[in-house]
Each structure stands twice: as structure tokens, then as C-alpha cells.
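Here is one chain, start to finish.
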Amino acid sequence: MIVRLQCARCAAVYPTDQVRYVCDCGGLLDVSHDLEALRPEVNRHLFDGRLEGAPTPHVAPTINSGVWRYRELILPVTADVIVSRPEGNTPLYRHPRLSSWVGLDTLYLKHEGENPTGSFKDRGMTVGVTQARLLGARAVACASTGNTSASLAAYAALAGIPAIVFIPAGKIAAGKLAQALAYGAHTLQVAGNFDDAMRLVRQVCDELNVYLLNSLNPFRLEGQKSIVFEIVQGFHWRPPDWIVLPAGNLGNTAAFGKALYELKQLGLIDRVPRVAAVQAAGANPFYQSFRKGFRERIAVQAETVATAIRIGAPVSYERAIRTMGWTDGLVTQVSDAEIMDAKAMVDGVGIGCEPASAAAVAGTRKLVAEGIIRPDQSVVAVLTGNLLKDPMATVAYHTGEWPDAAYPNRPLSVAAEMGAVRQVVERLADSR
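Its structure:
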């Protein structure tokens, strides 16, 4: 099987054993698969058979992992070099109360927060760290608002490779910082925002022979394609009408389009669903560019409660534009209030997510209200992170610190005597 690095802008080709993140022309790189050679080798039966195989301690992670199950379409390597926890195989949830609130007959939630470190980043990191091992990397590094650093730290520790993470000081949720520290990553707090941290980590990796594992790295995005592979396989290879996802650095937006393009070219799906990328209104450069027909690349000073998508100059901009073309996609924006209210609804049905994830649900609701998504269409909203990734945002919403919270669940004060407690409990026990 032929796997190469190929520029998404000028189509220049480079070998995969070369450490390279961008083309000489400045364009971003893809991991390019020979789809013609793959066509007779991959089919639905191949992947369904691996899914149905009973996992045992002696089975290679190509079966146990929801990423490496699709190794021919991601990175065809032998099991002995793979760094896997394993990841993937995340559930599709649905709940009638949430579907009704959004305005759909049925809303499906693909919960990537149920990956090993609590976010979708594990799917990309298993591939990125595996590639780092193949290259004999001295160390690995990333800039992060939280989820990437947590995932990098875990997978680097598993592989025995030093990890260095650059985080914007004061702009990272405690639940994410705790993971990076716990897994042993060397953590540098940059006096600036995410874009400052990203600029510095790129310089470090270029000058000091450290392997970069942000979404600029094309192998990261290959792993993230498996979210789409699992969605369509979960729908028995009949894709939903829409896939809606949060959009920050645009790595998932880019990966989703590439995954759908490859599935269609290989004949694994008959049609391509539309992709809707949802940005926070305070961190909306891709939305603004979309509104201008992508004639102008816009950067913003990002500010939003959704820390995972608080990014003003997204790296995967060009690759994400390609996704819009491949999928007849669109970009929308939602306010922080809409994000937190959607999060309260997702949390309230017992599923739970971090604020950035809820942007996908808020965006879906908005698109239904605008008549862009019909109530009878099938929609999968992708939840990218676990509820406990940002617990303080949840506490603030429910305790009165968040202005205009529509669905707060405030703690109740009660006297320390049975009569008062009985009165409150009687009332609560009969509530619905």
C-alpha cells in the first residue's frame, strides 16, 4: 500500500519517513492513500468483521481500537508499533427530551468524551504518537487549550517518549491541566493566548528536533477521520443527513471531509452527508470567512466560555474549506449563552459534555429553527469532550454566577432538622 504526504494546495509529494508538517509552498499536508490500490482490498465486510470480533487480551489493537480497526485508511502499520489504550468505539446516544428541545424527530450524539482521556484527541494522538515512535522522535510537543495536552501526555507516557506542552497561562480548564500534569508532561505556561503558544511550539519543533503533534500534523487528522468511519458504520453504512461538530482549530472539520471523500471514492457509502461546523460567536474566524465566501482569511482575538474552541487563527483553515466543498457544508455561530443552555440540556438527560461540545447541539438547534435542517432529517452532533473537562463552567452555570442561565439546577439551602428536610424532599420526590 502506498502512503505519502501530499500538499493540499499544490499536490507536491513527500515520503512519510520525513518529518514535515507543511509543503515548501506553505500549504498543509495530507496523508495520501492510493485509493485505486485500496479499492479491491477494503469493503464493508472487512470492517464489520473486525467490529464483531470478540476482543481478548491477545488480540492486536487493530480490532480493540476504534481507530486501528480502519488501519488501511489511516496508517497501515504492524500491531507491534502501535501506541493504543485503546481508543474509539464511542457510543451514539439519543434522548427524546433532547431531540424535542432541538426540534428534531431524533438527534444522535456521538460522544467522543468517552475516549480514554475524555476527548476526541485520543483518536488523533494514537496515530501521531505511533508515527513519532516510527520516526524515533527525541520528544513530542503541542500547544493546547487543554484536551490536546491531556491526550499527548497520556500517549507519550505510554510510549515512553518525553512530552512538552505549551499552554496559555490562565486560559485552560483545571480538569485538562490536571491530566497533563498527572501523566508527566513538562508543562510550559505561556504568557499569551493559544495562538502565541502555537507560534512558539512550532519554532521549538523546527529548531530543536522535537516532533509536533498539534493538528498541523497530518497524522493527527488521520486518526480523527475514524470518528466519521464509526458514525457511518454505526448507521450500517447509510450515512445520516447531517454531521454537526464544534469548530475551533478546524482539525476535525478537515478530517471529517477527508474521511467522507475517501469513503465515497472507495464505494463504502453511496452519498455524502452535509457537514455543519459550529463556532462560538466570540471565536468565529471561520464563520466570518464563510460569510465572505472564503475570499478573505480572518483572524480574531478569541474569547468564549468554550475553552476548547477559543482559537482566533485556526491552523487547518485551508483543509476545512475543502470539507465545505466536498460536503456542501456550512458554518454557523452560537453565543456563549446558547452554548451553556445546550450544555445544560445535554447534561440534564444524563449524558453530559464540556462547553465546546455543546456548541454542536446549540448549532443544530439554530439550524433547525432557521429551516436549514428539517425536523425529519437524521442528524449526528459530535460531543468532543467529557463533562469533567471543565467542571467550573458547570458549577458557575448552576450556582448563579452565569448570567441568564435558562436551566439552572441551583443547590437548595435547608435547615439541619428533619421537619425542614422532609418538606423539601417530599416536594422534590414528586417532581418530574
